[in-house]
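S., here's the first fold you wanted:
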Amino acid sequence: MAWSSGIGALESVDRLFERRVEPINHVLANAESVARTCHAMARRFHHGGKLVVFGNGGPSTDAQHVAVEFVHPVIVGKRALPAISLTSDVATVTGVANGEGLDEVFAHQVRHLADPNDIALGISTDGNCTNVLRGLRESRNRGLLTIGMAGGDGGTIGRADIDHVLTARADDPRVIKEVHVTMYHILWELVHVFFEHPGALTPEVPA
């Protein structure tokens, strides 16, 4: 079938792009919330904290991606900032899962690797990952700045008592993952914007 006569294909292409528009517009509509999250992160980094990132499945590789973006910036001249992914050490993840259960793999590492000055970023596509939620709760109990990144309606993470939740408002997990990548690139970029304007890090603004 010629492209010019493939009406059904054209409609499918339109729908493919349209379902990505609303989630990105939601991020734009919540720009102030995103900026406040980045400001809180920048202040923690400014005071010597590090970023601790975790997630399951696809978000486990997102956690590694986020960590390397901060530790080894792809843009020349940008400051390297301390970050670790709790999904990178397979021996630790599987050891804790075997000994204490999968639900504890992140909370256990937070207890032994994180400091109160740090930042915890938990990523969950549907917002309902028990081990991500437990990792965030343990982080909050220890005084870390807590940030959840979820999809859909935010799930249990969106309703949890954590400092900041960034939600990709979509039902398609592929779209959620795409929006999450955009979100954490924005986090990285805005943290560096605040570092380039040191005066923005000194006022006492609630996290």
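And the second, which I think is the more interesting of the pair:
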Amino acid sequence: MPSYYEILGVSSEATQDEIKKSFRNLALKYHPDKNRNSEESKQKFMSIVEAYEVLSDDQARKIYDNSTLQQRPGPTPRWTPPADFTTVYSYEEIKRRYRPSNIGGGMWDISDKASFGMWKATMVLFACLGAVVIYILLVD
């Protein structure tokens, strides 16, 4: 069974930011909403969430690191998803909450659904609106 660090593709010395970035990339790639017909993808997503839940919590990470260093024999405790799992780990929530930068929003935030062409069209529209305002001011 791969370690949580292997699942997220980070080293055991990874920072919280590296863990968060890796989680976001992998969760968006393997999310069940994106891969609807793949049971393997759903299981991979659940293991990514489990690894992130443990490694993102400093106390849980210390306990995990100590237990893997000691290589205790016997069954490992089972992870259970939080009660609001579908809300916290929905595809849209992962994109919103775990995005690389918390700066953004408003009309200048270009999401992955918007294109650069849409942004250019908006700028052309503002330029035309400005030209109409100037024309009205000059005519009157």
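Why I say that: The CA atoms of residues 71 and 110 lie 47 Å apart. The chain is about 60% helix and 0% strand.

Talk tomorrow,
H.
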